């Protein structure tokens, strides 16, 4: 067996894929580029933006006086025919006038406040949509990066395993090994090939979903990610928790909803005040008689039962919004704490893989490989250490993507830039 060439191959594999770093032919696209593209092109975000602009147009509608009314009258005397008596009776006339409803002072301003708070809540919901899309893009990107890098690990280790199969076959042919060794190595190679096939399938599914989020054509070139690298946590748990009230999109929606309900309550109380209507009518009775001039002033008194019910409804909705905020706040705080614990635990685990498990497993594999070359170890031990080393490298990559995904979700929850 050519131990030198095999060891050189192993060194190459170790250098390129011990922690999932794989060279790629295509130019990688950064996550920040895809987030900007999603923000500009995603149809859900665009639809939400149009919704906000539509709601903003309700503000001038409710803040404007009711439409004025123009009146035309024709009063006949002696006959139902039009203009009967107009020239011979001082009661027949043609009248023109106008009237205007005047809500009680402050009512329009109160309604305007409600509409503005509605628009603010809608705007906050847009931010929830944007962060939701961004969170989905991050999740797809990180998973795609994991699959692309572990695919490199699998392919490189498939090449090493091919070399091991060749060496085991040579040993068997010269009577220094067993056919079972070759068969076992081939079984392991089949498992790697199966993993590679599954990786391709998963990558295709994620590519399709990610292109959908970006509003790209499904036939466009596949996205190549940058290599995953560990991002250290720079904030304490208390700092992240403090960001929730101010930056969390869901909390901002709830806070805006409370302000909306407070404005609605103030408006409901104002609706109990009377409204007015003024009108003026000019009546022409032909030039032989004196004209008539009529001024009207009407007062509308809202029914107390209806107004009280509106006030009670607004009060209950304000309490509902407050309790919703409290519930969502506790949920978001718990998610941040869980994410922080997950990220810090993964950091410790990554260090253990990087500084302990992977190097030790690699050393054990090399030692066993050398012993096998000298016929001092059975091939099954070489295959076992090879499998262990491959598993540890894949586990490292999985822990790394879990760590980065936890940080990405913390960004969504806190509004901070952590990666």
Describe the structure.
The structure is a single chain. This protein is an alpha+beta fold and 419 residues long. The chain has one domain: Outer membrane efflux proteins (OEP). 69% of the residues lie in helices and 9% in strands. It has helices spanning 3-17, 31-41, 43-56, 58-63, 107-173, 179-214, 237-247, 249-270, 304-373, 379-414; strands at 69-75, 93-102, 275-284, 292-300. It has a 4-stranded antiparallel β-sheet with strand order 1-2-3-4, with no helix packed on it. A hairpin with a 7-residue loop joins β3 (275-284) and β4 (292-300). α5 (107-173) runs antiparallel to α8. The longest helix is centred in the C-terminal third of the chain and has 70 residues, at 304-373. It starts with a helix and ends in a 5-residue tail after the last helix. Mean pLDDT is 86; it is low at 1-24.
Number of strands: 4
Tally of domains: 1
Tell me the distance between the termini: 47 Å
Figure out the total of helices: 10
Radius of gyration, taken over Cα atoms and rounded to an integer in Å = 38 Å
Biggest sheet strand order reads 1-2-3-4
Largest sheet: 4 strands, antiparallel
Globally, the shape reads elongated
Fold-level CATH name? Outer membrane efflux proteins (OEP)
Helix and strand content put the structural class at alpha+beta
What ranges have pLDDT less than 50 throughout 5 or more consecutive residues?
1-24
Family: Belongs to the outer membrane factor (OMF) (TC 1.B.17) family.
Organism: Silvibacterium bohemicum
InterPro entries: OMP_efflux (IPR003423), TolC-like (IPR051906)
Subcellular location: Cell outer membrane
């Amino acid at each position: 067996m050519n131990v030198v060439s095999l060891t050189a191959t192993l060194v190459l594999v170790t250098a390129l894929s011990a922690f999932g770093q794989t060279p790629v032919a295509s130019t990688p696209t950064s996550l920040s580029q895809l987030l900007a593209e999603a923000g500009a092109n995603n149809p859900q975000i665009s639809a939400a933006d149009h919704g906000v602009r539509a709601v903003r147009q309700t503000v001038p509608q409710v803040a404007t006086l009711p439409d004025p009314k123009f009146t035309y009258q024709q009063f006949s005397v002696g006959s139902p025919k039009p203009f009967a008596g107009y020239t011979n009776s001082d009661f027949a006339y043609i009248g023109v006038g106008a009237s205007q409803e005047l809500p009680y002072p402050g009512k329009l301003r109160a309604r305007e406040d409600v509409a503005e708070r509605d628009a603010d809540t809608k705007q906050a919901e847009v931010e929830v949509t944007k962060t939701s899309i961004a969170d989905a893009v991050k999740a797809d990107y990180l998973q795609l990066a994991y699959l692309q890098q572990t695919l490199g690990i699998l392919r490189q280790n498939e090449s090493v395993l091919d070399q091991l199969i060749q060496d085991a076959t040579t040993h068997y042919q010269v009577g220094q090994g067993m056919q079972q060794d070759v068969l076992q190595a081939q079984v392991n190679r089949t498992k790697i090939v199966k993993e590679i096939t599954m990786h391709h399938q998963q990558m295709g599914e994620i590519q399709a979903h990610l292109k959908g989020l970006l509003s790209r054509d499904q036939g466009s070139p596949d996205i190549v990610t940058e290599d995953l690298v560990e991002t250290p946590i720079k904030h304490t748990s208390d700092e992240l928790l403090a960001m929730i009230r101010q930056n969390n999109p869901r909390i901002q929606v709830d806070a805006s909803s409370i302000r909306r309900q407070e404005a609605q309550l103030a408006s409901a109380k104002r609706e109990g005040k009377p409204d007015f209507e003024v009108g003026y009518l000019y009546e022409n009775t032909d030039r032989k008689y004196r004209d008539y001039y009529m001024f009207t002033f009407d007062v509308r008194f809202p029914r107390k039962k209806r107004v009280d019910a509106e006030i009670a409804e607004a009060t209950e909705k304000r309490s509902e919004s407050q309790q919703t905020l409290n519930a969502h706040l506790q949920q978001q705080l718990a998610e941040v704490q869980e994410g922080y614990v997950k990220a810090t635990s993964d950091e410790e685990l990554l260090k253990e893989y990087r500084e302990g498990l992977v190097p030790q497993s690699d050393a054990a594999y090399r030692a066993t490989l050398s012993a096998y070359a000298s016929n001092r170890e059975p091939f099954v031990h070489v295959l076992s250490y090879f499998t262990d080393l491959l598993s540890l490298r894949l586990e490292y990559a999985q822990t790394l993507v879990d760590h980065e995904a936890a940080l990405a979700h913390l960004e969504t929850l806190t509004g901070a830039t952590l990666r």
